[in-house]
Amino acid sequence: FMKSQRDFLREVSLASPGEQRIKILAILTRLRQIACDPSLFLESYHGGSGKLDMLDELIAEAHEGGHRLLIFSQFTTMLSRIAEHLRRRGLAHFYLDGATPALTRMKLVREFNRGAVPVFLISLKAGGTGLNLTGADMVVHFDPWWNPAFEDQATDRAHRIGQQHTVTVYKLIAKDTIEERIMQMQESKRDLVNSVLGGDGISSALFTREDVLALLGGDGR
Q1: What residues does 72 pair with on adjacent strands?
Q2: Distance separating alpha carbons of residues 69 and 119, to the nearest angstrom
């Protein structure tokens, strides 16, 4: 966090207002990726991910209990990492992101609801609307979208007409990371959080130097 604070202060001080917004978003995205799995950002990192380990345990228990899962992430690179783990476990799965053609989406949804595979990996934006996935009874947000509307829309893919089972929702949060700080800021700075992480860009009127430093865990002094 200390290095990120220094990077932020240095880069922002040298940038134009438009460039500042881009640099701020890049720093925050970097920290969010590290909270998910440091290897998403650090190519030389091979130390594993506590979040991924937790997900492995959750998937194993769910599979043993006969449950069927939807797993959402904002990062397609993270979904690819999860897919690797599923293959190592010998668990069949489907994958859907924004690049998946419409006809393929329909086919995957139909086959999942019929019980073809136990796990469906979906990028959060691609899964926000238009999918009826009543074949699932568990929803996992690997890196929750802090705009509640987007997250709820994804969760609602399993809460559709025709759902016959109780749906359990899990949110995986990395302790002592930017994710916890965003949660703490959500109530007092709801508009800010929606702006930063809701996919609508950063509003300079809402997003101050102090706000970024709070997310980075310091006051800049």
Answers
A1: 122, 141
A2: 5
Handedness of CA 117, 123, 128, 129 (dihedral sign): negative
User: In terms of pLDDT, which residue wins out, 43 or 217?
Assistant: 43
Q: In this structure, is the dihedral angle defined by the CA atoms of residues 171, 176, 179 and 185, taken in order, positive or negative?
A: positive
Amino acid at 57: E
> What mean pLDDT is predicted for residues 2-14?
63
**8 A C-beta contact, residue 154 and residue 124:** yes
C-alpha span between 167 and 143 (Å, rounded) = 19
Q: Which residues pair with 93 in a beta bridge?
A: 119
pTM summary value: 0.80
- What the block records as the tokens of 71 is 């797993």
Q: Tell me the C-alpha distance between 44 and 207, whole Å.
A: 32
Give the torsion sign (CA, 36, 38, 39, 41): positive
Sequence-distant (6+) residues with CB within 8 A of 184 are none
48 has pLDDT over 50: yes
Half-sphere exposure of 142 (CA within 13 A, CB side): 36
Which H or E run contains 113? helix 102-113
Scanning the chain, the segments in alpha helix (DSSP H) are 2-14, 17-36, 50-64, 76-89, 102-113, 148-155, 178-188, 190-197, 209-216
pLDDT digits (tens, 9 = 90+) for 146-198: 566 677 777 777 766 556 678 899 999 998 888 887 777 666 656 655 555 54
DSSP 218: S
